[in-house]
Hints:
The structure holds two protein chains of two kinds.
Chain A: E1 2-5, E2 9-14, E3 19-26, H1 30-43, E4 52-62, H2 64-78, E5 85-89, H3 94-99, H4 101-106, E6 111-114
Parallel strand pairs in A: 3-4, 4-5, 5-6
Antiparallel strand pairs in A: 1-2, 2-3
Chain B: H1 3-8, E1 18-24, H2 31-52, H3 63-87, E2 96-102, E3 106-116, H4 117-132, H5 135-146, H6 151-166, E4 169-176, E5 183-193
Antiparallel strand pairs in B: 1-2, 2-3, 3-5, 4-5
Helix pairs in contact in B: 2-3, 3-6, 5-6
Amino acid sequence: MKNIHGESFEIRLEEENSTVVFKGALRLCGTEDYAPILDMLKETLINPTAPIVLDLRQLDFLNSSGITMLSRFVMEARGHEGIDIQVLASEAVPWHARSLKNLQRLMPTLTIRLS
Amino acid sequence: MTISEILSNYGERAGECEYLTLAFSPSSAPLRSRWRNNGLSADFLADYVTTFLPTKDGVPALEARQNQLKHAITYIANELLENAMKYHQTDVEIPIRIHLELASDHITVSVSNGISVLQAGRYQAFVEHLKEGDVEDLLLKQQEESARSSESAISSLGLLTMISDYDAQLDWRFDIHPTQPGSMTVTTSAVLPLENVSGASA
């Protein structure tokens, strides 16, 4: 299990079930600061158990640089054959219903489970 | 009321509505240590708004709806401040300002910063592109473009998501600096109509 954390966030990679769990508020400063998190996401593409799960249910805030990081991961995943991505989202977190649909436009097979 | 009508008497309605202005002197601390302040300021502005949120017939908006509006203000204020901090020209003698104004039917969040004439030209070209194009198409294109690590594409993505995901109306004002002719002040305003936030409208 790998973990990246900061003052307001925590991200955990569970390799055994290709799941990345995000918690807190992510407002990092640009591409460079998001690179370690993007690298962690890309690790799920090496030997994925189907599907790859992004658990965002406890991610209360994500700035546009963070949205870009998710977009970059999804575009990277598009290039791998047979990859399924499932995003777990929450109705209680306003940005999930508003912005996650943009990821689906990049990868129409991506599923969003809003609960 | 159109966005230009809203903004034409913007900031001149002291006493008629609630407003709040914060100003930062960006040369006083490096960008990285200042970054944390963007989130703190955005959260503060959003908390402030929900305290004064207009109510329908004296009945406060439901908690879930207040939460929607609070998040929209946090996102918009944070993105505008991040852009201002990134692009502010430190030798321009003006502070970065964020101004929030609460009227009965809309909320305005406005951020101004100093930029070079060259940078202003690039920004104006993007603004023209945005006004003429389809926001959803531009958003998809910017998402693809931002994958190539372009920081300016990410900043554009922030503005596009405000329009696409939060129903904000954006407008821009570019002014020549009164004493530094090589520099300009850019003010980016986001107007959030309250009727788009169900239950929050006056």
